[in-house]
# Entry
Amino acid sequence: MNKPNDLAIRATDLNDIDSNASHDNHFNSILNARLSRRNWLRGSAVTAATAVMGSMGLSACGGGSDAVAVTPTPTPTPEKLLAFTAVPKSLADVVSVPAGYTATALYALGDSLRAATPAYKNDGSDTDFDNRAGDHHDGMEYYGLSAAGAPLASGAERGLLAMNHEATTDEKLSSHFLHVNGGTTSLPRPAAEVDKEVAVHGLSVVEVKKTGSAWATVNDSAFNRRVTPLTDIELAGPVRGNSLVVTKYSPTGTKTRGTINNCGTGKSPWGSYLSGEENWAGYFTRSSTDNAARGDKSVVSLNRYGRSQGGASRHGWETGGSDDKYARWNLSKTGASADGSDDYRNELNGMGYIVEMDPYDKTKAIRKRTALGRYAHESAAFSVPAVGQQLAVYMGDDSRNEYIYKFVTAAVWAAADANPADRIATGDKYLDSGKLYVAKLAADGTGQWIELSLSNALIQAYGAYKFADLADVLVNARLAADAVGATKMDRPEWCSVNPANGEIYYTLTNNSNRTVNPSGSSQLAPDSANPRAYTDMKGSSAQNGNPNGHIIRFKEGTGAAAATSFTWDVYLFGAESGADASKINLSNLTADQDFSSPDGLAFSPYTGICWIQTDDGAYTDVTNCMMLAAIPGKVGDGAKSTLNYATAAGGNLAVDTFIGKKPTADTLKRFLVGPVGSEITGISETPDGKTMFINIQHPGENTALANIGDPSKYTSQWPANAGYGAGKRPRSATIVITKNDGGRIGS
Ligand code: FEO
Ligand code: CA
Ligand code: CA
Ligand code: CA
# Structure
């Protein structure tokens, strides 16, 4: 969720928080020492990486027909991809797809998962959300089943959708669509409202099945499941048992209560579901005198993660009652213990991880993989597995000026793990030990992965925070990344690995902090990897910085997944097609391709298409959010370019950047436009490539609380206006997309 340019309507824009005030990593001053390596990296590394990736594709696809392997090599494509007619930009309150395609709502907020739970009335009176679809559907993955209902990766007509329920549509504390009259907008919040709002967060698993040509969810399937902020979740990896995660709930520091603000997703090569915890910090409060009560370095950590003392929580859930399940939302040090086992002073350290779940097996513990670091996670994308080689997991931290990370496993990939007896135990093997790195990008198109551990002298010597051990580095990964001078990026959202060549794509959604003349600690000058600072008008309101975002991509150097160096370029710059092509529309986007604020991004393992989704507030005066289909080239297929900016002091700021080959009508095309006020997110397909599931998040989100009860004033009535479900309140929902001729999606 984010509408960075619609701040007036949003009570809390948690995505757009800027907690990175570190001063040590201005881009233009870094890495001159590596200039001499530029030509070597630009040349031979490309060849080496291509060779490695070529062999990976062959060695990774050993699963039999019942394998749960999830990284298939793309099959040759007999049909022409992107042959559809581009969908025009639109402000209509519908889902628009190309001629020849059908999009249908399938699974919306409140839909019953159990026979005993009544159908959703959608009037604010519904309860029992532990047995209903959650709200704000976000990242999502498909897991195949056989006709008989057994796990089967190739199952294309019956399967499970596992998805994140990120948040709710709010105004003044209350998730207003969930309550009859919009709910209580002052403290204390009634327990019944809090319980409902908590329960719509988390994850869900729902069985889906195709009958004839129609898909439907399976009510009361034994696989159907909800995970909420109250579900017991194990801490796994180096942070497990550390003093930093001791709470009243878990005095041994081995588990946490639930997961929250789950955003992007990932699918492991062993068939599990990965969920990123994103804007979790804002749900917690801290008293205005908590710094003095603590009097230790935890204050530095809390400030860096966006919870300075006196900060109000997003919903006021801590006021729901005396029960511990409400108290846990208050981070203040209130107990007398030395270790935090009598309060929730350490509760925030249990949030902010990649969470692993076996979507097929409710009996397996859900685990937070702490070795991958704690920050505002989006998706988690694996390198192409190669037998006998380490795996990389690529990740980003979505706040303004935050960083790009990767985790490299200690274990090397074994083909048998593509179809393991125990997927969570396999997760233990790969995700609990390894090294976490942060990206540092140079102006010459190269970059370095810097290890975050106490073996790095800069981390040992960091003046702002004294790290005790590896667990401390992982819990405070942002501070460790500050210490090593990582590159501040324009809000990293999803990432995905191109299965054809192993290159890594990151969406950088936007950044209002880029400016040619920075002042204060949070504003940044444009740099090579984040090279634009400009003004876009939305009606009469000026949007400054990089309001439309861009997509950067990396090619690993020697060592492939375990490489410590890479090269990069900018695949695409978001822009309005009519914007200045020399300064803003640097990718020469046409009206059939122009987009703003890329967020979801994933390569189809089946067609190889790169799907790009937007969560925008900048171009929404012209069009609702959208999804595009792309066939990208590779790092280095474009040209170096220099952007010149006039500084306030009368000088010239020259920023070199690398612009990928400009797209054509055959390589980038708009495929879908969503309803009013919605973000398009979640990319998943059946393994025959013929059915796509995506999520429509927060349609009608700008509907004012005062208008609850008057459907004529809802900014959206989707999906009710498409014939789905009761009531007229807008609902986040999964849609299913098929091609009328039975072909693959994107052809
Ligand atoms: Fe949940 Fe960064 O979007
Ligand atoms: Ca977003
Ligand atoms: Ca504009
Ligand atoms: Ca996102």
